[in-house]
Amino acid sequence: RARRLLTAGAGLVAAATVAAFVLQGPYAAGRGIGAVSDTGLLADTLRVAYGKLLLLRLAAVAVLVFLLPRLLRPGQPDKLRARYENLTMVTGFVVLLTFSATGHPVTDPVMFVSVTADLVHFGAIAVWAGGLVQLALCLYRPAPGEDLVPVAARFSRIAAGAVTAVAISGAVLALRIMPTLSALWTTEFGLLVLLKIAGLAALLAVASRSRAAVRRSVGEPPEGTTKTVTLRRLRGAVAVEVLLSVVVLALAALLTVTPPGG
């Protein structure tokens, strides 16, 4: 199940990368969708750093697809598993770097700070959102005899660390990228940032309910409540978390194509 989820995610990243590459030329030239097959525009995209980074991302995703089934294969020697883990982490870092190196952080005069913060921000969101989808699959389609309580308890601890990293790195990015404080309520970029913060706050509120359900599942259920009812509440809270995550990620996508000062 984890292998299928990760492979599907890699496929989505690859498809989105190809789409971004073929659409960049018409977008930069101010032409319509009919120009996606213009070889001249494709060559123009390839000549700039953005196009090269997209190709690097595509190559890194291909390596990930090769490594994932080997990483998750059961019963392999620890030394071989450690080698696959190291290769997968390095390749995953390259994928994250290609996103950070093609966004607003590279326009910061102190690029190292913004790119580093963006890497932390993107990576923490990937851990949180990816783990959330995996948890949702575990809750709604559990394997026979699978005990979901330790899974939820472990993810709850991981998610708490990821949320902290998202909040801190997001604050650093906002301070570095926003031209002035007043731009928060006077520009489209600032309003999108505020909407993203509101969505994240709602997501945290739902996540706190999920953590409370996890704590009840780990311990003895309150009087008049069965563990089955608690898990049902956890399923509902996780479903809402997934939906809110989609909204927050959509706002983040809009931010990447909105000029900070406009």
Describe this structure in a few short sentences.
This protein has 262 residues and is an all-alpha fold.
What does this structure look like?
The protein is built from 9 helices and no strands. The model has no long low-confidence stretch (mean pLDDT 83). By secondary structure, it is mainly α. It folds into 2 domains: 102 residues, no CATH class; 153 residues, Up-down Bundle (Four Helix Bundle (Hemerythrin (Met), subunit A)). Helix 3 packs antiparallel against helix 4 and helix 5 packs antiparallel against helix 9.
Features of the shown structure:
globular; mainly alpha; 262 residues; Four Helix Bundle (Hemerythrin (Met), subunit A)
CATH class of the largest domain: Mainly Alpha
Count helical runs: 9
Report low-confidence residues grouped into runs of 5 or more.
none
Radius of gyration: 21 Å
- Assembly of the depicted chains: single chain
User: Which structural class matches the secondary elements?
Assistant: mainly alpha
Number of domains: 2
Question: SSE string, helix = H, strand = E?
Answer: HHHHHHHHH
Q: What is the level-2 CATH architecture name of the largest domain?
A: Up-down Bundle
Task: Please state the overall shape, judged from the principal axes of the Cα atoms.
Answer: globular
Largest sheet: none
- Report the mean per-residue pLDDT as an integer: 83
CATH domain fold name of the largest domain: Four Helix Bundle (Hemerythrin (Met), subunit A)
